[in-house]
Amino acid sequence: MSGSSTLKIILRRAGPPALALIVMAFFGGYAVVGPNGIFAYGDYKRQLATREVVYASLDKQRSVLRNRVALLDPKHTNPDMAEELVRRQLKLAHPDEVIVPLN
User: Fold this and answer.
1) CA 79, 85, 89, 95 torsion: positive or negative?
2) Would you state the pLDDT for residue 1?
């Protein structure tokens, strides 16, 4: 046999397993380093923690707004809330009042 024919035989025998190893190494590396891999897990945990803090803040705001909406129910409006809204919209105050802006 000549040298090129033995090389062809070796490549024919070793080619498919080598290709399979390359493909497995690619997917294994992607599973570790990729955007959804093991190294990205810590980043996901940090993002989850920050979003839970934001969610808690938004949930608190929602409960405050829900309470204000309940106080403005057309069937039974809270007089203090109605007065506060009218004064804020019309920018009215008595001469002896001190206005402390909260926003």
Assistant:
1) positive
2) 56
Alpha helices in 1-103, H assignment, sequence order: 3-33, 40-71, 79-90
Residues 19, 12: contact at Cβ < 8 Å? no
| Residue given tokens 């309470």 in the structure block | 67
> Residue 92, CB half-sphere, CA atoms under 13 Å: how many?
7
pLDDT digits (tens, 9 = 90+) for 20-50: 999 999 999 998 888 888 888 888 899 999 9
Q: Is the pLDDT of residue 55 over 80?
A: yes
In angstroms, the CA 38 to CA 41 distance is 5
Structure tokens at 49: 């923690």
* Token duo for residue 30: 């992607």
Backbone angle region of 91, left / alpha / beta, with phi > 0 → left and psi within -120 to 50 → alpha? left
Dist. CA 9–CA 40, nearest whole Å: 43
